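fyi for ur records
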Amino acid sequence: MAWFLSLCFALIFSSLGNGGSATIPATRPSRWLDTLLPNGNFELSPKKSNLNKTVIIGKYSLPKWETSGLVEYISGGPQPGGFYFAVPRGVHAVRLGNEASISQNVRVKRGSIYSLTFGTTRTCAQDEVLRVSVPGQSGDLSVQTLFSSNGGDTYAWAFNATSDVVKVTFHNPGIQEDPTCGPLLDAVAIKEILPLKYTKGNLVKNGGFETGPHTFKNYSTGVLLPPKQEDLISPLPGWIIESLKPVKYIDKKHFFVPSGFSAIELVAGRESAIAQIIRTIPHKSYELTFIIGDAKNGCHGSMVVEAFAADKTIKVPYNSVGKGGSKKASLKFQALTSRTRITFYSSNYHTKLNDYGHMCGPVLDDVSVLPLR
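which gave:
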């Protein structure tokens, strides 16, 4: 018995002492992931001996992450050279220089869909890109347009887990004259996207936008959903972001949401469109209903949401004073084929009343298509 206990203790201490491993182990398996990644907010800092001013020295010096290339560990606020870096979701962030990357192994369920939510903003050039990837899947997110003036843009990117452990990587593929220039990354979370539930009678999937990416509980900018060109698997199941610019996923805790807990804000005018293809019966009549409003976020002006179904269209006006509110609208149409595309976008561009650098727009919620007798 004594030799058995000695062996057990030896194995335990051996595993605890394996800190010099050449790879970072995957995060522990979870019944249902919906949380920050380990050190996803980068508040666990590298040792001072592994920092050259702000530059991280050593591949495994950033706790829970693996780094490659010129990666800086940034504290929010004024920076050398007259820069100011906002880190709205905490105190610390990482900055990816020329062709630099950070990665982490994450244990997932093979065959499930996951969405990453992360805060990012550009720091130097207008054309900065953040490449997000797992093995076999990647997307390049342009951070050229800033949708909030305080560096608080939050994005989502989705992937299909093809193995039990995936290596999540954030990479700056650009090369600037200043090698430190590149996107700032200041929070990373993951969420398993559960299969959609059928809503009796409604032909629209996820019409209330209740199934979507992780939203930061203590941060209120909403989550930008990238166009399908940059994310082939939508973090908003059932819907296609078929525009040049993203739409924003908003939650009831931080915004006015007309129905349920989540909605969509059309933040980039005609460049911010959302669509879904539904099954229909040719020549049969249907009614499309939906709610529009404002998010109670200071977004003001004469809003117009345009909706399309088959060969029909409707423009729904809404005068916003930025304090919350909504109205219902409907459109009757006749299906032309067995597949009908429904599309929504904002006719106009809007900014917050007291912050003209913060892009915003009308809210869309509770979309439904029902057959008419």
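The mean pLDDT is 88. thats all i got for now
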